Amino acid sequence: MLKFLLLIAVVFVVLWAMRRASLPPPPAPPRRNSPPRLEAMVRCSHCGLHLPRSEAVLDEQGRVFCSVPHRIAGPRTS
């Protein structure tokens, strides 16, 4: 009786190992995207809003604005 149980256990382990070997490997975890680059923040000369330099609108004197209407209105004088 003990030999029979041992034989079943060995067969089970062999079948389990064969099945596991035939399975494809699990997919690799997704790669994390690199963190966004830090960008200089600038302040609108009209309303004081802080925004990334790449989104700013500049006038002829190099002053920074958040939008074309604020560039047209010019810097606030207060």
The whole-number mean of residue pLDDT values reads 89
Report the uncertain regions.
none
Q: Strands of the biggest beta sheet: in what spatial order?
A: 1-2
Strand content: 5-15%
What is the CA-CA span between the terminal residues? 98 Å
Shape: rod-shaped
Order of helices and strands: HEEEEH
The biggest sheet amounts to:
2 strands, antiparallel
Helix and strand content put the structural class at alpha+beta
What attributes does this structure have?
2 helices; 78 residues; two-stranded antiparallel ribbon; 4 strands; two-stranded antiparallel sheet; alpha+beta
Task: Describe this protein's structure.
This is PP0621 family protein. This protein has 78 residues and is α+β, with helices and mostly antiparallel strands. It has a domain at 41-78. Helices cover 35% and strands 13% of the residues. The protein contains two helices and four strands, in the order H-E-E-E-E-H. The strands form two sheets. It has a two-stranded antiparallel sheet with strand order 1-2. Strands 3-4 form a two-stranded antiparallel ribbon. Strand 3 (57-58) and strand 4 (64-65) form a beta hairpin. It starts with a helix and ends in a 5-residue tail after the last helix.
